[in-house]
């Protein structure tokens, strides 16, 4: 019988316990080794974890593939991972489902004026606004990747007008698509509710800035569910305070948790959630790792491989 394929895991004990159960049950041809229980892993090619340690390449001289248990890779110390090592990010059905739920919640809350209603009713103000049909509202999604496409599809099903912006051209039923910087202003000009589902890269950092807000129609609303680094927070505050942006829902902030004096906290037209739109579940992560090892071992294309050049 061939020796089981070793996979090194760095995780918190509660998640590691789930990984071990899944591997025992579903991958008898593989064996999990715990990063914290041993010092050297020579001969082992696979590593899984949220944050690869700085001495990864030293302790794993034969490393070939890193599985990052997260959808974004902006937290990864790419310089510490040798260039020949493949990096795969976490994308699983539940990660996508939770994000779709959150985007639907956020868009519906903004569409139905829930942010001002929460504050007004607490203060005893009874101020119903006209109800607009979904078909009269345009939702613009920045980022038509795995998560952006799933959210767009769900919004189309609710009857919204949906447009999406990405780097390369896309064709999606019911979605008006725009590609590249040259189309950004046209995409924004008719967007009533802007959803940011971009990865954080050198090109997208601080993309949600004053210029972008002023290109949206007056009264537009913003939902940032990408990364805190996409948003220039003082620019949003200014646009909220002068009424150009009507409301914002933010799942991510530049500093998490934010300092107690962060002006977005408690702002009457901002609703904040603590980076909880979606998260990877250990069972799904373990299953994805098993699939990755099988794909890598058989020479098949590997799903959700990170393009280091593009940064996502
Ligand atoms: P993907 O890599 O599948 O998709 C990224 C999309 O962004 C692609 O459509 C890509 O264009 C587009 N894009 C990237 N750079 C640019 C650019 N410079 N200009 C225009 N479009 C660009 O990512 P996912 O959909 O899986 O995830 C998106 C992000 O969501 C993650 O990177 C993460 O930051 C965030 N996230 C947040 C979570 C939360 O809880 N708040 C949870 C999970 C993820 P193209 O298709 O042409 O390549």
Account of the 3D structure:
This protein has 312 residues and is of the alpha/beta class. The protein contains nine helices and twelve strands. The chain has helices spanning 13-26, 56-59, 93-111, 114-122, 146-157, 184-189, 210-215, 233-241, 282-298; strands at 5-10, 30-34, 46-49, 65-68, 86-89, 138-142, 161-166, 175-179, 193-196, 220-224, 245-250, 270-272. The strands form two sheets. Strands 8-7-6-9-10-11-12 form a seven-stranded parallel sheet. Helix 8 (233-241) links the parallel strand 10 (220-224) and strand 11 (245-250). Helix 1 packs across helix 9 and helix 3 crosses helix 5. The chain is elongated and about 70 Å long. The two termini are 39 Å apart. The relative contact order is 0.15. The model has no long low-confidence stretch (mean pLDDT 97). The protein binds NADPH dihydro-nicotinamide-adenine-dinucleotide phosphate. Residues 71-72, 91, 99, 143-148, 165-168, 197-201, 203-204, 225-227, 251-252, 275, 277-278, 312 line the site of NADPH dihydro-nicotinamide-adenine-dinucleotide phosphate (NDP). Residues 71-72, 91, 99, 143-148, 165-168, 197-201, 203-204, 225-227, 251-252, 275, 277-278, 312 line the site of NADPH dihydro-nicotinamide-adenine-dinucleotide phosphate. It comes from Rhizobium quercicola. Pfam families: 2-Hacid_dh_C (PF02826).
């Amino acid at each position: 019988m061939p020796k089981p394929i070793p996979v090194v895991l760095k995780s918190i004990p509660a998640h590691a316990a789930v990984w071990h159960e899944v591997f025992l049950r579903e991958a008898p041809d593989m064996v999990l080794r715990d990063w914290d229980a041993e010092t050297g892993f020579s001969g082992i090619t696979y590593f899984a974890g949220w944050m690869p340690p700085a001495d990864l390449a030293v302790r794993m001289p034969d490393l070939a593939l890193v599985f990052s248990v997260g959808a974004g890779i902006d937290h990864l110390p790419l310089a510490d991972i040798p260039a020949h090592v493949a990096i795969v990010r976490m994308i699983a059905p539940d990660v996508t489902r939770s994000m779709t739920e959150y985007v639907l919640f956020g868009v519906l809350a903004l569409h139905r004026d829930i942010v001002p209603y929460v504050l007004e009713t607490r203060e005893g103000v009874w101020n119903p606004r006209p109800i607009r049909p979904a078909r009269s509202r345009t939702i613009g999604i920045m980022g038509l990747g795995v998560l952006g496409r799933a959210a767009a599809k769900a919004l189309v099903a609710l009857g919204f007008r949906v447009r999406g912006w990405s780097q390369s051209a896309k064709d999606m039923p019911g979605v008006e698509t725009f590609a590249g910087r040259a189309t950004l202003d046209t995409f924004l000009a008719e967007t009533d509710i802007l959803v940011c589902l971009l990865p954080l890269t050198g090109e997208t950092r601080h993309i949600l800035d004053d210029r972008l807000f002023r290109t949206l129609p007056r009264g537009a609303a913003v939902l940032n569910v990408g990364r805190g680094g996409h948003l220039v927070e003082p620019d949003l505050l200014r646009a909220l305070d002068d009424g150009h942006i009507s409301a914002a829902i933010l799942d991510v902030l530049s500093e998490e948790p934010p300092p107690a004096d962060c002006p977005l906290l408690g702002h009457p037209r901002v609703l904040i959630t603590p980076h909880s739109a979606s998260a990877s579940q250990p069972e799904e992560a373990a299953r994805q790792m098993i699939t990755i090892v099988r794909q890598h071992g058989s020479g098949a294309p590997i799903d959700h491989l990170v393009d280091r050049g593009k940064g996502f």
